[in-house]
Amino acid sequence: MSREDAVGEPRRRRWLVTDPDWSLRDAVAQPAMLGVALLTASYLRVLFHVTDVVGGTTLLAAEVVGVLAVGAVLASRVDARTALLGSAGVLVGGMLTYYLSIPASQRALIDFGAVVRDLVALFSGLSVFRLVQADVWALAVLPAPLLGSWLLALRGRFATSVAVGGTALGFFVLTGDAGFLTTLTGVVGAAAAVGFGELAPRRALAAHWDTVALVVTTMVVVTSTVSVVPGGGASPIVAGSSAPTLEGNVVDNADSVGIVGSIRLSPEVRFTVESERGSYWRVGAYDRFTGGSWVRTGETRVYDGELDPPPGPTTTVEQTITAETTLNSMPAVWKPVSVGGNVQQATQVTAEDGLRAAAPIADGESYTVVSERPAYTTRALRAAGTDYPDAVRNRYLGLPDSTPDRVGERAAAVADRANASTPYATAVAIEEYLESNKAYSLNVERPRGNVADAFLFEMEAGYCTYYATTMAVMLRTQGIPARMATGYTTGERVAEDEWVVRGLNAHAWVEVYFPEVGWVAFDPTPSSPREETGERRISQAREAGEAGIDTNRSGPGEWTPTPTQTPEDESGPNGTVGATATPDLAGIAGGQRTAGGGEVGSFTGGGPADPSGPTLPSPEEVGYGLVLLFGGVAAGRRFGLDDRLYRFVWLRYQPRDAPVPDVERAYDRVETLLAAQRRPRRAGETVADYLDSLGVRDSRVRRVAALYERAHYGGDASPADADEAVQAADALVGETTPLLGRLRRSG
Amino acid sequence: MSDEPRSDGGDAAVEAGGDPGPSAFEPLSVEAAADLIGEIVDNVERVIVGKRDAVEHILVATVARGHVLLEDVPGTGKTMLARSVATSVDASFRRVQFTPDLLPSDVTGVNVFNQKTQEFEFQAGPVFANVVLADEINRAPPKTQSALLEAMEERQVTVDGETRPLPEPFVVIATQNDVESGRTYELPMAEIDRFAKKLRLGYPEGDQEAEIIGRTAGHHPIEELEPVTDGHTLRRARETAGQVTLSEPVRSYIGRLAAHTRNNAQLGVSPRGSIALARTSQVRALLDGRDYVTPDDVQAEVRTVFAHRIRPRTGSETGEDVVASALSSVTVE
The complex's ipTM? Predict the structure, then answer.
């Protein structure tokens, strides 16, 4: 296996050998090390992102430094096999640490089956974020691959090192935590490390570095322009793929919602609801915000009977939901307490008490849900206080460490403007602030970094996901537990107790926790532009004759009393999801009221950058451009273009020096020209023989040659000679370049 | 290299008519030197028909302080050529016919006891002349050959412990008959190396032979040949030749040519050969009226200067073949 073994020493296993020839500086100063660094950076990036979201970045950084230091110390004494076995041991140790760190109450639940199930789930796309103790997990898992690949790279075993690092990156690719750029960085690093690592010991680096560079560049260019997996979460940098649907983005993703860019609306009917009250049909909620997406942590369990109702007074709502297409989710009024119908067996309950379909619900199938809708008054919410249970406090107040402070400052300022002294008043103030300060648009460019911060300070428009995300984050900065909820809006009312819900009704809003009341919905998205957009899309689709956009009971103008005009629950709390078809109408009204007083909307600081200024390219674009440049240089070198370009310029442009070198170069240019037109000078041919052999009669050529002989062999040339030779060479070269020659003649 | 201070050399210019004076000879201008050599060549051509190249080569060797080996069949005008050159420069000429019984003292001279003065007097041998024709040098035994070769190299002769300088200019033109190999002593490589050039005259071509017959019908033209210059001027021309620029590219070219012969033959060209090529190339440049050597000059000289110094690897190859291969494969820079 290892080269040391092959030398033929007696087969005695030496676990610790000190290699006197090894030096840290030589080991690090290898081009392949750059590749290893890139690969390492790619999975470190994932782990750092995890700890950024759940806490513990400093500890992780300290761990990285520690592991690198230990590796540097050990490297001279450890061979490849020891390094591999050692990191395997470190991995087992790390996993044990993680296991021990899980609270004893939860540990009791973990048996062998659960461990295997978790492992399978991780490998099939379960995000690391869904682990409850993601920070401890990150700290536990990091040292093994880092130490292993670092030690192996220091020993010059780049291929094995890449295998170790690649396994770590591959794991995060499978969990879905490594994004496109991260993965690409890692893969490019791996290719570079193996390529350079194999070339260096064969002393072929100087001759073949451009091949490796070309391969790496091709990898970058091809993967960033060609998307093999359609609709994959990682969108290519260059080619524009069609925008995902709002529904597909918000509702279908079971355990996480990635915040994407532009989005479109699907007018297809999804389901119909028979219920005595219209409401938002809720699908799920998400507790962990990673900056760019929402993740639901914790286990999903099988539905086994009644669920707990919310703590406060409630109203019972019974709904029958019939799927009109295959449904992946189970929409229902919050908060469901029991499920009936065929799908009961396949129902799961998520960690936040939402319903989830274990198997898709087929077209035409229906189920009934009994929900206990919180029946609260504004007074109850105002009086709710801040005595949050620990479970709520732990799960619903976390924010990424990297969240800028200005988000919290803005949230506090908004609350102060509205003289908000209670969580409820703060929530209403923020809701109104967002409603009245941001425009509604489905065409947005996905911001980089923290989405809430970007929406608040850099973007002017967005859609529900942006509004909901920003409001939830702002509330959390104020210590108010909040989460993002997704589902469908009420839909088109086709009868007294029947609603038709389409794909374009997919929506996201915010749920805020109030002690003694439970989760209360707030919708910061301005409702009228959203509804107008939806209606436009339906009429468009109807005109275009698209299939599946109407049931036999829906359609234009069948149910004339538009429910939006008469909210049933006039006394309902502002901005809460009441029983109205457009529950946030009251919120809009509130926003207008405040805006009329000139209070909201007067924040100007931190607005979008001056739109007239030049747009700076993003770091990705700059990196991409650099890679392209590097690849171009490598390709040019590989195919000799650099040399040709050099010759081209060299032939056409002569900087002046001293007379003798000037004359010499002038002749070299003329000879290059003759070589291209006729034939190159042969090895044993003198200048005179060459010109005679070609039968050159041009007196300028002869003159330059004569000047050259005197300058080159006699070391004698006057400035006038140099001028004459250079001018003659310029003229001769100019005549052979059509365009240049014409310019010269005309000039 | 151009200037070997030989204060005694000047005094010994017995018949050259050279001014003994101080060692420094005022160099001629490049044009004057070129004209001088051209005049000598023209003069010699009055006697020697159609051998301008050979005449030039001999003059180049003379000005470059070299000696010439002529290898040819008898009767091609070797002796006449040597005499014409000597006469043209108003220099003394001696001819030595090398035979198997020739002794070294027959070449160098001997001390003879004078009865009148009761003293030994030195009777100078034929080597004490400006132009010495050593005819059929390969017929003499090695001991005699080496006496001449020593004189050629050191330009002095030692007899009975007394060293006598040879006159300046001093040129040996040796001939070698390559048709009769019986009773000959082939010159060793080490001695052949001392000749700057080896030439072949060859038979005259069609019309030329008729002209030779016509010219020699009455008086032989050599008898009417007049000198066009003297030894002193010739030595000034030598000074000029020594000042012709040998630039680095040319020196490197000569070095690479020599290296090529060493890599492609059993015995290649010695550094002495390279020096000879450099000197003759300088004179060749002078002949063209230039004060710097170009690779063309080197190429014009290299065949006659290098070929005889090379011992090829196979019998079917000649020194000329090796030089030709060097010329075609060594890059001119």
Answer: 0.82
